[in-house]
Amino acid sequence: MSPEFSLGWEVFEIIWINLLLSGDNAILIALACRQLPVRQRRWGVFLGALGGVILRIAFTLVVVELMAVPYLKIVGAILLLIVAVKLLIDEAEHSDVKAKPNLWSAVGAIIMADAVMSLDNVIAIAAAAHGSTNLIVFGLLVSVPIVMFGAGALLKVLERFPALVWAGAGLLGWVAGDMAAADPALPAFVHVANHKALELGLSIAGCVLVLAVAFAIAIYRQWREDQRVSRD
């Protein structure tokens, strides 16, 4: 794989992961600011999104440093697999997000909630960027216009084309496998002559695992629903 293609693929991964995982943050911002006057609402959206992204950049840089510790990349990969499956089987609830009465309370609520909600985003971006600070900052800055302006359009597209969500979850599984392959502790357990082959194998395995588990859960839930309807 050429360096140019590799860089382009990493950029694609980061942008697509942001598109998928920033949707909840965008909805939170809209709900927190919905009672503000129009002018203050714009500032609330901008400042809240900007503050959240700055926190995420700081968190991600810390996570990148921690990933050098043996086994932590494997733990991060497992968390990413869980995030990917939940992306397909969970329906987010936002009704408990309260509108704030003034600009600064809205901004504070957005930044705090964004920090809590962004662990999945942080781990995924750190994995996709392969430790590159420039790519991390770029990927997280991409989320600013997505969070501020693109949530409504993005949700409509994903509702109309649910296959895009499955593709994105598969990508997260791919990134998780790639992250696990890069863990410094792995060579002690797995001895392979070609590490690139190991990366490819684990990436494919992560992608297939996410899609298979989510599909099995969806089938099981449908079966339970059919059983409930038949009893009624």
Automatic annotation (TrEMBL):
Entry keywords, A to Z: Membrane, Transmembrane, Transmembrane helix
Family: Belongs to the TerC family.
Location (main, coarse): membrane
Chain segments annotated as transmembrane: 14-33, 45-64, 70-89, 101-129, 135-154, 161-180, 200-220
Coiled-coil residue windows: none
Alphabetized InterPro entries for the sequence: Integral_membrane_TerC, Integral_membrane_YjbE
Pfam families: TerC
Top-level taxonomic group: Bacteria
Annotated protein name in UniProt: TerC family protein
Subcellular localization, as worded in the UniProt entry: Membrane
Bilayer topology term: Multi-pass membrane protein
Protein source organism: Methylocystis rosea
GO cellular component: membrane
